[in-house]
Design a protein that fits this description.
Elements: E1 8-14, H1 21-31, E2 38-41, E3 45-50, H2 57-65, H3 69-79, E4 84-89, H4 91-95, E5 101-102, E6 113-118, H5 122-129
Antiparallel strand pairs: 1-3, 1-6, 2-3, 4-5, 4-6
């Protein structure tokens, strides 16, 4: 298995007054693999963070298994700002342990979860996450 590039991962979700914050947190934890995760909660928002990109292993596996690697790469590239990017995930699907990408916030009725990735090696991290060839350059090649 390829080494996992270093990166900072944050999964962020809002909590509406009608939602149980514990259920929101459980859905978020179904997205990220076990590991060194830190939680931060407020009445309106929950953050789950890790400095270990290995927590994305389940996301990576689902992107591959659901054949949406190219879509994930395209959405992450479009949202990229320097060494950071964000993917939106459908929160209802996440509550069932499924990673379903959203191209727009309206695609998740209660609001999406925001999966934020930051790394000084973001190209490598996105390559690993979306299962691209080693040495893939986001500016020169397209996903297969």
């Amino acid at each position: 298995m390829d080494p996992i590039p270093e990166g900072h991962v944050t999964l962020e979700g809002s909590v509406s007054p009608s939602e149980d914050p514990e259920k929101v947190l459980r859905a978020m934890l179904k997205v990220l693999a076990d590991g060194n995760l830190e939680e931060e909660r407020s009445t309106k928002r929950i953050l789950v963070r890790s400095d270990e990109a290995s927590c994305l292993t389940g996301v990576r596996d689902q992107l591959r298994d659901r054949s949406v690697r190219a879509a994930a790469f395209r959405l992450a590239t479009r949202a990229r700002r320097g060494d950071e990017t964000v993917l939106m995930l459908n929160r209802q699907a996440a509550s069932e342990g499924l990673v379903v990408l959203c191209g727009d916030e309206s695609e998740s009725p209660l609001g999406p979860f925001f999966l934020k990735l930051a790394s000084d090696r973001l190209d490598e991290l996105l390559g690993w996450l979306t299962d691209y060839e080693e040495g893939y350059s986001t500016s020169t090649r397209r996903p297969s």
